[in-house]
Amino acid sequence: MDSKGCWLPDEINGYVLGRVLKVNNDVATCQSASGKGDVSQLFDLPAKDLLLVEPHEHQPDDNCALINLNEATLLENVKQRYLKDKIYTYVANILIAVNPYYEIKGLYSREMIDKYKGMSLGTLPPHPFAIADKAFRDMKMQKESQAIIVSGESGAGKTETTKHVLRYLTEGYGADAGVIEQRIIDSNPLLEAFGNAKTRRNNNSSRFGKFIELAFDKNTAVCGGSLEHYILEKGRLVRQSPEERNFHFFYQLFAGASNPLRRKLGLTTPDDFLYLSRGCTRYFLQPQNRNALSEDRLSQAQREQGPLYDIKLDDLEDFKTSLKVMTEMGLDETAQESIFSILAGILHLGNVVFQESLSTHGGCMITPQSQPSLNMASKLLGIDAATMAKALTTRITGTLDLTIALRLEETSNARDGLAKVIYDRLFDLLVTSVNRAIPQSKKLTYIGLLDIAGFEHFDVNSFEQFCINYCNEKLQQFFNERILREEQIVYQREGLNVNSVAYIDNQDCIDLVEAKDSGILALLDEESRLPNSNSEHFTDEVHRYHGDNPRLTVPRKDKKFKNLRDSEGFLLKHFAGSVCYTTTEFIAKNNDALHHSLEELLHSSSNDLLRKMHNPKEAKSWTLKKLQSNIAGKINFISVGSKFKDQINDLITKLRSSGTNFIRCVKPNSNMADHEFEGGPCLLQLRFFGLTDVLLLMQQGYPSRTQFGDLYSAYKPILPQELRRLEPRMFFKALFHAMGMNDDDYKFGVSKVFFRAGKFAEFDEILRMDPDNLSKMVERARKWIICYRWRRAIYTARSVIRLREKIAYRQRNAVTIQRYVRGWLVRKRVSYYIQVNRALGRMTEELTQVREAYNHLPEFQGKGFANVDQAMFELHELKRRIRQGPGLMAPEELRTNFERLQTNVREVQAEAVEHRRLEEEQRRKERKQKEEAEKKNKTKGLDGEAVNSTPLIKLRNVGNLHSAVPADFLNSPNGSEQVQTNGLDGAYRDGSEGTFTNSLTDIASRAAMESFMLRTHDMTFKELKSYMDSASSDFERRCCEREMNRRYIALKDFKDVKRSSTLMKNGRDGRQH
Questions:
Q1: CA distance 719 to 590
Q2: pLDDT tens, 83-109?
Q3: pLDDT value at 1033 more than 90
């Protein structure tokens, strides 16, 4: 990767060219191409975020075909193609259109229309005609209405692109209808004249949105059309920025009206009218008409700076075109004169100025200087001048029709409000006239074209920008749903394994605007209904309700608006960036109603057209229907925001019920100059469109798809009989393999076949090649089908064999499972019996070990064998009863017998241990005696003769005496043997020691001890206990303890014998039963 070209972020150009110097530990060190070794131009980027440069001169028509697919190469490809006059580029099925700001010859000619007709998307260079043709063919094949959404910021070329698409559809597929197509096309100049204006960003900026429907019948022939418009920017009528103009038709009227008409209307130059003079007053003229206007029509700026220039605009010629279109739309000369009178009346009305009244009643009055303007306005509008003056300076309120004088500011607002309402309803009338002029018949489907202003962000943003940006939020959400979310849902539903693409959901921003009770529009309507509504109070309510919302904050958080107070606006974070809205005029612009006096004024007009426009009984527009629903027309509020919200929601509903195609228009520079490309702003526009996310999704996904049956029906007629007999899925498998298509270029879903971007066009192109190539393809398809069927037969046979083996295997396993389950159930039922049986086996082994131990205990063998045999007998008896079956012995009885047997075995084991201990003690004593005897035999007298070790007198019961003496009486504390028997033991060991008297004393003492031991045998247990407690010598106390222990052992033996006899008796009773 070292020394490769890469793209580095740049604020002005979006990205600049650089190169990778090194990559170390997943960190790439890059240098700008203009750095020239400057250390400050070095950048460290994560290697995974590195944006590599596309190979030289690789500028594909579809950005999905880029080798290094990222937003930097997307921007560069769009730029390089634009500089070469290739202003259109695809991102899968989405068209990017860059405004060239000059006319490219032959790009929209009739020959070009014929060239794109019937061609699949991607077979020819990108073009709006290709999108239009795709929409038509999708409508025809899928029997579903289609929509083409043309979006972009002001000056990006939306209106021109919409006209190109409309022209292609009407001329390409509507030649037989004639009048319908011509009426739809011709309506554009008229609507542009009354709804477009020059702004700083665009010379022909649409100041309204429109949705054009081109209707088709069951034969896919044009059978009608209609137009719906959205939120005309009425505020432009009364106020414009210095570099901007009012609506085009005012200037067309000044430039093109005849002198008699100008005198009748009282028109001079734009400088003489307040509604025009505050903006740009120059005309658009083509070079040939530069000097065509007389001096009395020119403004001062026109004389000094000359006319404005745009390749599409000419006020003089456009006036003639507008008159022609009016005539075609059914507006005769009388209606046209009424329209001219209304427009001139609006201009004269704008020159009416008010001043404070000097009367005692207060209020305002019209200045004497503007009285001629009032008279002229009232004359043109067909209204009495005095009545108009009164209606502009007072208003009637309450149920008693009280007349209230207006303040100076209120009179100006009433004048401007009257002018805006008249113009707005005149525009509604023109749209209605266009719709009526287009013949209508029964439609089956339609193709809709949406042309609406893109995201707007100015230095001062008011209610119009708020509504436009709200609309773009809704459209962006629809784009996300249709292109991103629904695309991934389709992949999941059809079983295609395609990675998901994350995108930002803007539902929270939409809820902030349109929530029912707490949305900004709802708060604005609530404020507008108050008697003393106030913009500052409205703004405070917005901040109070949504102060914790991350989408909304106070203006001072942005340095550009730090001088704007919190109560004067709010900062809203849209999907395309943050916009600060100034709320000063929100309440006035949200109200589409006039007070009762002005409404009555319009109803009393002698101008038939003006009176008809404001007659609720002939209401066609949303606003007039609202008027009709109110009693006596006495209403002071009709919400523009609610009307716009309802229109947009209806539009979104309509779009969701149709197929959708997108054309994204890009404004290359702010100077409106050709061959200039500003990378930074263009990159932001591409991001706002969500095209970088689409690029990733389309690269991983399959943007082209169609139903199996529909595609089968479309190509079946051109294929031979061999392929027609196939069912659709097999049909396409054969075709794709015969054409050598890569398996990754298409996917079969549950009900549709999906193609990678551009691959469906290749498939269509190959199928429609010359017959020779088609015959070769059919031969390849036939061979593939034969091979496929052979492989399928082999696979079927193998599958049958495997199935048979699997069935046998499952049967064997089923038997094994049954065996284990049954065993488990039985073990669960007799688990305690099994545990007892296993325990009895262990007890048998233990008793066998005890019996073997008694083989080495001869003194205790008799008793030990008897105990072991008795326990073994009871154990075998219990085993026998268990083996006879669990049903013969209840678990409680088994548990009782087993616990009793356990106790007996433990006692036998304990007795064996005790016998072993006694045996060892006896042996130890015998060894000591033997050792002492050996020592005595070795002892000799002084004369060398052995001393006789046998005592002169033998005492009786010496053995008993020794056994009765406690063991510790025979051992000293330090382990050496001492005489503890008053010399008796010493007499046995050595008769030569001591005198005969001492020997007799010892013999007497030992006799006393033996006598005491014999006496303890005759004592009762209670006497032994009492004597032991009061014994005077340790010897007596020990003798008593030993006798008590002997009796305890005898008692235990007695109990064991009794228990054994009881068990034997119970065993006999059980056998008898």
A1: 62
A2: 999 999 998 788 999 999 988 999 999
A3: no
Longest dimension (CA), the chain: 186
Binned at pLDDT 50, 70 and 90, residue 732 comes out as confident
**Residue of 56, 54, 132 lying closest to 93 (CA atoms):** 132
Which token pair is 636? Answer: 């002071």
Helix residue spans in 201-360 (DSSP H): 235-238, 248-256, 259-265, 274-277, 300-305, 315-328, 333-350
Q: Is the pLDDT of residue 727 over 60?
A: yes
Q: Where do the DSSP E strands lie in 703-820?
A: 704-707, 746-748, 752-755
Using 50, 70 and 90 to split pLDDT, how confident is the model at 1027?
A: confident
Nearest one of 377, 352, 432 to 620, comparing CA atoms: 432
Most confident of 657-671, 818-832, 889-903: 657-671
Q: Which residues contact 362 (CB under 8 A, 6 or more apart)?
A: 356, 405
Contacts of 444 (CB under 8 A, 6+ apart): 143, 216, 217, 218
pLDDT at residue 765, as a whole number: 63
CB atoms within 10 A of CB 688: 20
Please enumerate, by residue number, every residue annotated as part of a binding site: 152-159
End-to-end CA distance of the chain: 98
Residues 251-258, mean pLDDT to the nearest whole number: 94
Q: What is the edge-to-edge ordering of all strands in the sheet holding 552-553?
A: 552-553, 569-574, 577-582
- Between CA 269 and CA 273 the distance in angstroms is 8
E strand or H helix that includes residue 571: strand 569-574
CB distance 61 to 124 below 8 Å = no
Q: Are 253 and 269 in contact (CB under 8 A)?
A: no
Task: Tell me whether strands 552-553 and 445-451 are parallel, antiparallel or unpaired.
Answer: unpaired
Count other Cβ atoms within 10 Å, centred on residue 117.
15
d(CA 1004, CA 985): 12
Cα(516)–Cα(525) distance, integer angstroms: 11
Helices (H), 855-982: 861-883, 891-938, 958-964
- pTM here? 0.65
**Cα–Cα distance measured from residue 712 to residue 346, given in angstroms and rounded to the nearest whole number:** 61
Whole-angstrom distance, CA of residue 191 vs CA of residue 267: 23
List Cα–Cα distances, 366 to 238, 389, 422, 600, in angstroms. Answer: 18, 7, 21, 20
Rounded to whole angstroms, how far apart are CA atoms 953 and 1003?
9
Distance of CA 759 to the CA centre of its chain: 30
Contacts of 566 (CB under 8 A, 6+ apart): 539, 540, 543, 554, 555, 556
| Paired tokens of 629 | 């629903």
Under the banding of pLDDT at 50, 70 and 90, the label for residue 757 is low
Contact 719, 765 (CB under 8 A): no
Sorted by sequence, the CB contacts under 8 Å of residue 743 that are 6+ apart come out as none
Number of residues that make up the chain:
1073
The 3-state DSSP class for residue 755 equals: strand
CA 901 to chain centre: 71
User: Which segments are annotated as binding site for ATP?
Assistant: 152-159
Position of tokens 């005496």? Answer: 961
Q: Burial-class residue 455 by CB neighbours within 10 Å (0-12, 13-18, 19+).
A: buried
